[in-house]
Amino acid sequence: LVRHQFIAIEKKVSDDGIVYEQFSLDPLWQKMYYFLKTERVENDAQEKQLEEGELFRRFEEEFSRPLSPIEVETISMWLDEDRHSPALIIAALREAVISGKLNFRYIDRILLEWKRNGIQTPEQAKAHGEKFRKYPSRKTERKSIEEGAYPGFQWLEQS
To answer: How far apart are CA 42 and CA 85, in angstroms?
Structure first.
């Protein structure tokens, strides 16, 4: 065990000045800590890889076709550079599907808007999307005014 560095023999001196040897398990604890830490990192990496694979599969499923290399690169940039979680990207995809605008630029704009508003979880994104759909924009109000929502004087019709 000493040769494989699982235990160590340490020399100690007592208060009386007597020199003695003592076994130490510190090397064993350090090896166990390192092993568990490495195992956890490997498990996290495998989990992340599976989650990202699921993300790419979901995009291909929603688009009903394989992704182009540029689209794969765009998703990778969302993950690596923008640091969006796969769950948040899937929420943005879901939002685009609900809106009927299934393209990468629209999804990118959704993610940018969420980043500006500090949205980091799918739950926050869902609440933001519901709030956004609840209040119509000014453009839809203007359309209803232009379409004759207000009764006005008709010059061509004589009463």
So the answer is: 19
Q: Could you tell me which residues are beta bridge partners of residue 13?
A: 19
Mean pLDDT for the chain overall: 81
CB burial string 34-48: b at 16+ within 10 A, e below: eeeeeeeeeeeeeee
User: Which sign does the torsion angle of CA 127, 133, 134, 137 carry?
Assistant: positive
Output the six-digit token pair for 91.
């929420």
Is residue 41 scored above 60 in pLDDT?
A: yes
Q: Which amino acid is at 58?
A: R
Query: H helices within the chain, ranges in order?
Result: 26-63, 69-80, 86-99, 104-116, 122-134, 138-144
φ, ψ of residue 106 to 5 degrees: the values are -65, -45
User: How far is the C-alpha of 80 from the C-alpha of 111, rounded, in Å?
Assistant: 14
Residue pointed to by tokens 């605008």: 101
Amino acid in the structure at residue 98 = I
Both tokens of residue 100?
A: 């009927």
CA dist 129 and 112 (Å) reads 14
Q: Quick one: which of 133, 86, 136, 130 has its CA closest to 111?
A: 86
